[in-house]
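User: Last request for today: this protein with adenosine-5'-triphosphate, please.
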Amino acid sequence: MNPIGIVFRRELASYFATPVAYVFIVIFLLLAGWFTFYLGGFFERGQADLVPFFSFHPWLYLFLIPAVAMRLWAEERKSGSIELLLTLPITMLQAVLGKFLAAWAFVGIALALTFPLWITVNYLGDPDNGAILAGYLGSLLMAGAFVAIGSCISAATRNQVVAFILTVVVCLVLLLAGLPMVLNVLGVVLPQFLVDAIASLSFLTHFQAIGKGVIDLRDLLYFGLMIGFWLYANAVVIDLKKAD
Amino acid sequence: MIETRELCKQYGRITAVDGISFRVEAGQVLGFLGPNGAGKSTTMKMIAGFVAPTSGGAKVCGFDVEAQPLEAKRELGYLPEGAPSYGEMTVAAFLGFIADVRGLAGERRHQRIDDAVGRLNLGGVMGQSIETLSKGFRRRVGLAQAILHDPKVLILDEPTDGLDPNQKHEVRGLINAMAKDKTIVVSTHILEEVHAVCNRAIIIARGKVLADDTPDKLEARSRYHQAVSMTVANVAAAREALARLPDVDSVEVDPQDQRITAFPRKGRSIFGAVGDLLKAQGIAVSELQLERGRLDEVFRSVTQGAAKEGARA
Ligand SMILES: Nc1ncnc2c1ncn2[C@@H]1O[C@H](COP(=O)(O)OP(=O)(O)OP(=O)(O)O)[C@@H](O)[C@H]1O
Ligand SMILES: [Mg+2]
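Assistant: Here's the final one, the structure of the complex with adenosine-5'-triphosphate:
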């Protein structure tokens, strides 16, 4: 088996070794449901789609994913097991990818468990299942970018709380950069091309674009590059800080 | 085979390792001795490829640990200081993980895990999560992990720390059993261990090699080497008689248990003469012993001597 797969399996199993994983999944599902039905007015809208469900994902992820990612490397450094991991015959890239994919898969499992909503809309009406699939894809990609950021920041500290807070802040900035309200304010002081550039860096812009059901290569590329960049930074940070 | 060449490691302004070069061949068990903070663990971390040296380099089985890290790591079994592992995993799952990473599969995987578990008596705790194990058991899990793939080179940072006397004995036996065809480096603060397992010892302090010799030769540096100790009824008479022997340099009496030690002049042997003298004088002896030399004394004089020189410089 490939070393990435071996690290991945160990890491994913370690999520489920404690009740925290189940608590996380339950909270995720409860919040997703609450946002959708209560804040999103799922029934009141009278439309068979999952737009209210997906529109809250960025904000749901903002707090839940840093909690998933914070332990990835901080814990490893705190317990010293990083010394064991990095003296095994695997490359840094394999270790980083294996751990990242495990955290991403964990979020993916939580996301997949929202399938009853999809069944519900299909039962109630005749939704555009293509758009729903695109929504899931966009959400999963965005989650990946969140996890990559969290993984990188978790490598910079051995304190999980610090990792959590820093990750929330960075993710918040990347979300806010796409909020129309913020962009309007920025438009007053900055030239339009800069505002556009900032908007194009935001998760929100690309997530919403995918959620409309049109899968543009540029949006996929954006998340791919985002994940790639943060994971590369992750490897660099580990190299610099691993022995401290 | 391990080779280090002018290894240096600087942590900010602290020089942890300061130009360490040595070569260890298969069949050698090298004991790494030195006071706390001497740089033993840092040197081992650099050989294991965890910490990059500030300058200099290391080779494991001919593979440079920086240029060919994977090849070097494959040949190496490493027990890091404190035997870290994944606390939430069971021992069985943890060893399974290591076996997978080491590329062990099928029958050989079974065989290697059984072998390591057997050698370290882990059979009873396979299903227990590592964080709930006692310190000694955790260390044994770390050792099992290090020997799992039957590596050519073993680096063990304080392998017997926290083990009970029986387990210390077992682990020393384990190291001796593997010594024949492997290259082994162990760090330890337990000097009797050096005799029990090592055929070579390096003493380092402040990141520098101060002594590199066989344990026997190191002991020969002790002023106790070839001295004769005894317990007698009439201490005063014995002391006087011994001091008159031509080859005896000095005589000391331990203030606590009144044990007498006679030190020979350099290069002389006095055991026979002392025995004859005691018999001739009719002094009743309850115990008489030829000293080999005391490693702890050599350790102290080597490392503290260096500290004084360092302070003067
Ligand atoms: N990550 C680090 N950052 C800064 N200094 C360090 C770091 N690791 C080790 N040192 C310093 O390097 C020196 C050597 O430490 P090292 O752990 O190698 O000693 P040691 O010989 O293993 O000691 P011990 O017998 O206590 O285990 C010490 O002065 C230590 O404070
Ligand atoms: Mg040490």
